[in-house]
Design brief:
about 70 residues, single chain, mainly alpha
Length: about 70
């Protein structure tokens, strides 16, 4: 029984490692996500903050003083 828990924990660790890396977060958060109760904090942090990957894709904001100003 303990062997299966260890195998499933490793599979979860690998999945979290890949997913968090693609989202732009440091993959070592996957280790934190495998600790009970800490995983809830990591889950809420990932769910409620803007992802670093999304921030990189946003167009730069202009303040209206540049050549792209609309009248």
């Amino acid at each position: 029984m303990i062997r299966w828990i260890a195998i499933l924990s490793l599979l979860q660790l690998v999945a979290f490692w890949k997913i968090l890396g693609r989202m732009g977060y440091p993959p070592w958060l996957a280790i934190m996500a495998s600790i009970p109760l800490v995983n809830l904090i990591v889950l809420y942090y990932v769910a409620l903050t803007p992802w670093p990957r999304e921030r990189a894709l946003e167009p730069p904001r202009t303040d209206g003083n540049g050549p792209d100003a609309q009248f």
